[in-house]
Structure formats: C-alpha cells, structure tokens
Amino acid sequence: MFNQIFAGECKVVKDSAMHDAYTGRDIYDGLQWVTHELIYHYDGDGRDYFDEHYVDKNLSKRPYAYDITLTEEKNEIATLTFTVTKDNPYYGKFAIKRTKIGVTDVNDTLFFGYVSEIALNFDGSKTIMAKSILGLLEESEVTLRPKSHYLTDMTDDIIANGAPILYTAISNIESPSGDSALGVPTFNYGKVTMLLGKKVDLSDSGTVIGTRWNIIQTYLTDEYDGYLQLRYETNGEAVLFFVIDYLLEPPSTNNQEVRYGLNMLNLTLTQTLPTNLVNCVRTDKLVSSSKGWWIFKQVTTDFVGGAAEDSASVQKFGYHTKWLVTDEGNTEAELNKLCQEELNKYPHDVEPELDVEAIDLADVGGYRVGRLELLGKTHVISEPHGIDGWYVCTKVVNTIDQPDRKEFHFGFTPKKLSDQQKATEKKAKEGKLSLRGVLAHLNG
Q1: 389-398 per-position pLDDT tens digit
Q2: 275 burial type by CB count under 10 A (0-12 exposed, 13-18 middle, 19+ buried)
Q3: 52: burial class by Cβ within 10 Å (0-12, 13-18, 19+)?
Q4: Among 104, 105, 179, 204, which residue is least crowded by beta carbons within 10 Å?
Q5: Is 364 in the same domain as 403?
Q6: Domain of residue 424, residue span
Q7: Which residue has the higher pLDDT, 294 or 442?
Q8: DSSP assignment letter at 371
Q9: Structural domain count of the chain
Q10: β-bridge pairing 141-144 and 208-211
C-alpha cells in the first residue's frame, strides 16, 4: 500500500489526446496539475510522511491529514472527506471548486475530484469534503426534445439524427473563459455495452430539462441499472483523462477472496422480500369470433384467459399475483406467453445484501493479491454462515488512514428505497423534468 493525496489547481489541456484501447477512439481534453502539493503520504508501515521526512516521527505531532474516508458506490458520485491541521501545507489554500484533490496508489488514480465543502472546526482543524469530478454533471442542465431517443447507441446513423441520451448528458459542458482553475475537462464516451438498440419515446413529454446527472439516473441507471464507471487514463505526460463506461456486466473480477478466518472481520447477510416480488401473472380478455358469411354471419364473444407462475416461489412465499391488462393476444397460448414475459420482469425470490468488513490484503505485506475494487466480482467464503459464492462489490468505504477498517458491500445494488418507491420517484422525476420544459417554453 502506498497512498498519496495531492491538492492543487489544474488546467484543461485542450490539445491533449490519446488512444483509448478499450474503444479504439481517441479521448481528449484532460486535466494537468498547474500547482499541487503532497498533503498526505502513507507507505503501509504505520508512519505518515511528507517530503520524504517523517511527520509523526516521535508521535509528537498529529498527521497532516486524518479521518480520511473515500466512499464509492455503484452508480453514485464518489466522495472523499478528510481533516487537516494547521501544519498541513495546504491548510490556508483550500478553495471550493478551484482546489482539486487526487488520491493515488503507486501509479494508479483512486480518486480525482474537487473541493465541495470546507468546515472550520473548534480546534482550528478543517474538515474537507471533495466530490468526484463526476459531480460536475450535477451542476449544469441539458434538454431532451419531445421525440424518440436512443439511450446509448453511438453509430454514425444515430448521431446524424440526434445524439443518444448518455452522450447528451456527458458532453459539451461549458467552461468559464479566462480562469484555467475552473476549466471543465471532457467526459469521453467510453466502452458501452448497456441498452444497445434501446429507445425511449418522449414525444408526449414535452421538452425535458434536467441536470446531466438527473437525466442519467432517470433514464438509465434508475430504470435499467447496469454499471456506470468513471475510468481514469493518462498519456504518460501527467495529463489525466476521464472516460465514462456503461456496462451490462461487472467490469472486472477481484482476484482476492474475502474469506472467514483470513481477511474477513465482520459479516451481515440480510435477506429481504422485494416489495415488487411477483410470482404469478394472470390475464383475461373478451375475444370476439365469427363464423358464417355476410347476413348469415354469427358473432360470439367469450373470455379467454392466460397465466404464468413460478411454482417454486409460490411454494415459498404464497401467491404474489399481478393482473396484466393487454390489448395483445387472442388465444390462450398467446396470453400465456404475454403473462410469462411480464412475469420475467419481476423478482421471484428474496434479494440478499451482504455487508462485509474486511482487511484488504493488498494493504498488508506478504500477500501478492490485487486490491478489492468497486464493481469487481468477488469470491466471498464464510463456512460458518453457509456463504460460498461470487458477489459484485457495490460499495467501498475506504478508510485510507485506517486500512484495517475498510467496509465492503457485496451483492445487489444497495436498496436506499424500495423498488416501488424507486419507480414512483422515477415517475415524479419525469413529471418534474417535463413540467420544467413546458414552463420554459411558455416563458419564451
């Protein structure tokens, strides 16, 4: 482990470009330090350094930074918080938005963002909060016209008829002129395997207006999930590029196991019955049929029904039935097929959430393993709890100055809201975005 934290000001290098090996496209407009200082250094032996000298050599001084927590969560904007004393060389220079913060591990960038909050504490220390550079997507708005939009596709034909929603949400962010410290880099369109060919029709919604991040959540991640990833790339000339990937499958596999008796410190397995669990779908409709010819034709109407169920789920939880209203299908076989398609849209079983407190063996000498990373598929084994399976790491709380207290969350996306609440919230978001578009039109 070799963590360093830098603070300083950056500029956008407009003529910078490099080839992205993942997509085959060039990526542009990265950030480069103009001035920066090392404000925290930890090499894994319990001592904090600064400028190659021990800061806490005889435990007579406090470290330059402490209570350092990097919180990363699936499809959310990462945050970094830490506290600095007056001894910190950047103590009097921190400025909201202008100061950029970078966290590195050897040659890898773990986090890059900007100061979003500064709190002066009673003892004179300052607590600094930084948002990931993705936070810039919360600070400006875009419009979606009332028509049909592709969600993610980027073929030439599609671009000619209007960019997909993901591209619209991340591109062409304005930078203020004459102040390089507030320059906005390009969020480059990266590897996308999610929702290819999928469209959304906004013809009846009016012009939709919302923040870029709100648009991404409303029409992509809240609706379809997937793995939205910010990827850092560098051209070897100290220019950092930002690439946004949107993936159907987890982007990586952690080669480090989390195992009871080795690196697992605590475990909580929560099994929750989903609020939108459906294990049976039924429908019926009145179908007219006729026989005979012309004035001799006889018309009869009969109810035709269809159904589909997950019998194993019914045996475990009883019936959780949804009634399907449809204009399609006129035979029992056709209606059965429609019911099965509807049933496939819902969970049929409990959803486990696995919270694990563990030591990342990459922080411990003597182990040649990769770091446990967000969105990585991870083998979690705890024989006393009957757990032996592969889980996706959906949240990491990285206590950088206390590496033995890291927290990892595995399994499905953490449920802040029930699925029904999330669906209701999405409809409310769509309504607000559309209403804003209507008001903007009426106000000229």
Answers
A1: 888 999 999 9
A2: middle
A3: exposed
A4: 204
A5: yes
A6: 137-250+418-442
A7: 294
A8: P
A9: 4
A10: antiparallel
